[in-house]
Amino acid sequence: MFRRRAAYQPKQTDTFIGPGTAFEGNIHCESNIRIDGKFKGEITSSGSITIGERGEAHSTLSASFIVIAGTVVGDIHTSGKLLITSTGQVCGNCESGLLVIEEGGILNGTSLVERLAPTEDHSGAHKGKRKAEGSNSETEEKKVNEKQAG
């Protein structure tokens, strides 16, 4: 009747900084990266970034999907999902398309979640587009102008 949720299964990792390893600098990669050691600097990835349970990052993280199971001190930016697991700790500001904090996970800082609003292209297919600030006021202004005109 009740199904237990499966634990998060990470995707294949292409770049790995293992336990007992300390690295300082900038990493820019087009694949997935996992940190289980200590890292200081900036990480930018087209894939995913995972900070493992024993991982510690004093850095700015940018990727399409980010999982925090260890400790991050710094800012996080993702257009996709940010997952802070039950063992994860974040001290910094987060911007994401979706934010999930499991019970026991810690976020000390601010979070900004911007959902993608579906739009239609010429083929009728839906594409994601960020809601622009002021878009509601423009719609309301059009409605007022229509009422005044007719």
Structure description:
With 150 residues, the protein is mainly beta. It has one helix at 135-149; strands spanning 15-17, 22-29, 33-35, 38-45, 48-51, 56-68, 71-73, 76-84, 89-91, 94-96, 98-101, 106-108, 111-113, 116-120, 126-130. Strands 1, 2, 3, 4, 5, 6, 7, 8, 9, 10, 11, 12 and 13 form a 13-stranded parallel β-sheet that branches.
Could you give the topology of this structure?
Elements: E1 15-17, E2 22-29, E3 33-35, E4 38-45, E5 48-51, E6 56-68, E7 71-73, E8 76-84, E9 89-91, E10 94-96, E11 98-101, E12 106-108, E13 111-113, E14 116-120, E15 126-130, H1 135-149
Parallel strand pairs: 1-3, 2-4, 3-5, 4-6, 5-6, 6-7, 6-8, 7-9, 8-10, 8-11, 9-12, 10-13
Antiparallel strand pairs: 14-15
- Taken from the alpha-carbon principal axes, the silhouette is globular
| Structural class designation | mainly beta
Alpha-carbon Rg, integer = 20 Å
User: Major beta sheet, specifics?
Assistant: 13 strands, parallel
Low-confidence stretches: 123-139
Order of helices and strands: EEEEEEEEEEEEEEEH
* Straight-line N-to-C gap: 58 Å
In DSSP terms (H or I, runs of 4 or more residues), the helix count works out at 1
Number of strands: 15
- Mean of the pLDDT scores? 81
Helix share, percent: 10-25%
| Strand proportion | over 45%
